[in-house]
Design a protein that fits this description.
- The protein folds into 2 domains: about 280 residues, Methylamine Dehydrogenase, Chain H (7 Propeller), CATH 2.130.10; about 130 residues, 7 Propeller (Methylamine Dehydrogenase, Chain H).
- The protein contains 3 helices and 34 strands.
- A hairpin with a 4-residue loop joins β14 and β15.
- The longest helix is centred in the first third of the chain and has 4 residues.
- The radius of gyration is 21 Å and the shape is globular.
- The two termini are about 20 Å apart.
Length: about 425
């Protein structure tokens, strides 16, 4: 991982799938835990923890919020007259800490399936929401904010109107909320000072266009490692854009993304984001159109470099997948960066494309012709994992060579890779 990928032109034709045929691979190398979302709509969704070598199911987790490094996993369990907030060790299932919170509060949802939200980027603060309640004829939204260690009490903040969680600052002092404005896709971002429990008077807007109304449907979202920004893709009829929210600041940037047609909402849901470990570069790549943008947070609101990639020449969108955008919304794990930031792995229409971040050109194709729904680099950077729901496959890939090392067996319709880490 400390050097550029080499030799792809050779191995791509001998080690990977071609013409839509599946790779015949041995069991994956052991020593890793794979965290997956398996199943589809209708009650079969589940979050599983599997051994990389045997594919054995080590445990099943309820829907919850993971810490950024997956050292903790938070769940809320309703009880008689209250609720139990629990911090689990997701690797062992051991309970680390618990707290009692008022009934009706839950971990925030960002509007698509997968792990819920509520944590600050550094993992030190946690927010819960009651999802808004009608009180004396008006809607009031309430939030609980406290230390993620669960060692102290949570502060209750209430605000009149229909508000939903957006982000929480690393200081635990500012809660960013989505204020719904009647039309389901029309909203404002508001900053709430937790100490005083009051909203900052002016909405969080792009300084260049303070009067422009905000609208769109939330897609992929990432926070940079320095917790300076939360980046979120929004799909809208006028075309996709990235909402760049600097935490502890009363403004944001709205960065338009290239699109062939602003009305193609399905294509817009194929945007995926990846940020390097230094937080100095953000990449947005569209697995359907092949458009890619490289954005430096230090140069906002400039988009920086863009390119048009031939993600899958000769292939069309995989037909019949139950994990298509109209069924699932934004992909979880649509792009991943190597630890040195020199290589971007991204989902194409079929398979995975390997992109050199210096030139924004494709170096190779992995699992070409395969149906792949999600990718994730292991926390130590040694392996790239890929999941495909259509064939119930999870592949283990050497990110330095692109060779498929093996398969993780046992998963049923795995459509999202949530985490992978050494034991």
């Amino acid at each position: 991982m400390s050097h550029r990928l080499t030799g792809f032109a050779l191995f791509a034709v001998i080690a990977l799938t071609a013409c839509g045929r599946s790779v015949s691979a041995p069991p994956a190398i052991g020593g890793y835990r794979i965290f997956l979302e398996e199943g589809f709509n209708g009650g079969s969704e589940r979050i599983t923890v599997r051994d990389s070598a045997s594919g054995a199911l080590e445990r099943q987790l309820p829907l919850g919020t993971p810490a950024p490094d997956w050292s903790r996993y938070y769940t809320v369990t309703p009880m008689a007259g209250s609720a139990r907030l629990t911090a689990l060790d997701p690797s062992s299932g051991r309970t680390i800490a618990q707290a009692t919170v008022p009934t009706g509060y839950a971990l925030p949802s960002l509007g698509y399936q997968g792990p819920t939200a509520g944590l600050s980027p550094n993992g030190q603060w946690l927010a819960l929401t009651d999802n808004g309640r009608a009180t004396t004829g008006k809607l009031v939204s309430s939030f609980l904010v406290g230390a993620s260690s669960l060692s102290g009490s949570f502060k209750t903040v209430r605000v009149d109107g229909d508000f939903a969680f957006d982000a929480l600052s690393d200081t635990g002092q500012n809660l960013y909320l989505i204020q719904r404005m009647g039309d389901p896709n029309h909203y404002q971002v508001r900053q709430l000072d937790i100490a005083s429990g009051t909203l900052v008077e002016q909405p969080v807007v792009d300084k260049r266009e303070p009067g422009e109304p905000m609208n769109g449907i939330r897609g992929d979202s990432v926070a940079d490692s320095q917790a300076q920004y939360v980046f979120t893709v929004y799909a809208r009829e006028a075309g996709p854009f990235i909402h760049a929210l600097p935490l502890d600041q009363p403004f944001a940037w709205c960065i338009d993304l290239p699109a062939a047609s602003g009305s193609d909402m399905e294509e817009q849901f194929h945007w995926s984001l990846a940020v390097n470990r230094a937080g100095s570069m953000l990449y947005a790549v569209n697995g359907s159109s092949g458009r890619i943008a490289a954005i430096s947070p230090a140069s906002l609101p400039s988009v920086g470099r863009t390119a048009q990639l031939a993600l899958n020449p000769g292939h069309s969108l995989v037909a019949g997948l139950v994990t298509e955008a109209e069924a699932k919304g934004a992909r979880i794990g649509g792009a991943a960066l190597s630890t040195d930031g020199r290589t971007l792995f991204a989902l194409g229409n079929a398979g995975i494309v390997v992109i050199d971040t210096a030139s924004l050109k494709i170096h190779a194709r992995i699992l070409e012709g395969e149906s792949v729904d999600s990718i994730r680099l292991s926390s130590d950077g040694h392996w790239l994992y890929a999941a495909g729901a259509a064939n119930s496959k999870v592949w283990q890939i050497n990110p330095s060579t692109g060779a498929v090392s093996g398969e993780v067996s046992g998963a049923t319709n795995p459509w999202a890779l949530l985490w992978a880490a050494p034991k």
